Amino acid sequence: MGLKYRPEIDGLRAISVVAVLIYHAKFQFDFLQTPLLPGGFLGVDIFFVISGYLITSILLKNLTQGNFSFRTFYERRARRILPALLLVMLISTPCAWIFLAPKAFDEYALSLVSTLFFVSNIFFLKQDGYTAEPNLYKPFLHMWSLSVEEQFYIIFPLFLLIIFF
């Protein structure tokens, strides 16, 4: 059901992680006074491309072999994503309860729910405003990319199934 190991994909993953770290570490060229990776999305974009390639390859392989199953596909995604996500949520919540002010905790709770249902990208897009808490107090802000990926997992198999048959 899986694909053969591709070491170059691990190399691309490493590049994407390094790009995200460079952005968040705020590395810059001092003589130019400009950040090394100003948008910060290069690493995320690379990861989206890798994910799209792998998922498309798996789906096409299963479709051509006639053994595609939505249940199996979504079970595999859930087994891969949910344990780590739920652990992070379980550990983060007591810390948020202790360290965040009431308004920030309310936004945290809403972000937790939106992350659990993989719509945090929409939630945080709507949160950006005058009365929203600063990004520093949004521990699940980075989950927008996971939401985008999971939305892709929901829509893309349906799209492929429609065009395949």
Task: Supply the key terms.
mainly alpha, two-stranded antiparallel sheet, globular
Concise synopsis of the structure shown:
It is built from six helices and two strands.
Produce the secondary structure layout:
Blueprint: H1 7-25, E1 28-29, E2 34-35, H2 42-65, H3 70-99, H4 102-116, H5 120-127, H6 144-164
Antiparallel strand pairs: 1-2
Number of E strands: 2
3D shape: globular
Element pattern in H and E: HEEHHHHH
What does the oligomeric state look like here? single chain
Give unreliable regions as ranges: none
Biggest sheet layout: 2 strands, antiparallel
Instruction: Quote the average pLDDT.
Output: 88
In terms of structural class, how would the helical and strand content be classed?
mainly alpha
Number of helices: 6
Identify the strand order in the major beta sheet: 1-2
Radius of gyration: 19 Å
Please state roughly what percent of the residues sit in beta strands, choosing from under 5%, 5-15%, 15-25%, 25-35%, 35-45% or over 45%. Answer: under 5%
| N-to-C span | 20 Å
Give the fraction of residues assigned to helices. over 70%
What can you see in these coordinates?
This protein has 165 residues and is mainly alpha-helical. The chain is 71% helix and 2% strand. It contains six helices and two strands; from the N terminus they run αββααααα. The chain has helices at 7-25, 42-65, 70-99, 102-116, 120-127, 144-164, and strands at 28-29, 34-35. Strands 1-2 form a two-stranded antiparallel ribbon. Strand 1 and strand 2 form a beta hairpin. Helix 1 (7-25) packs antiparallel against helix 2 (42-65), helix 2 runs parallel beside helix 6 and helix 5 crosses helix 6 (144-164).
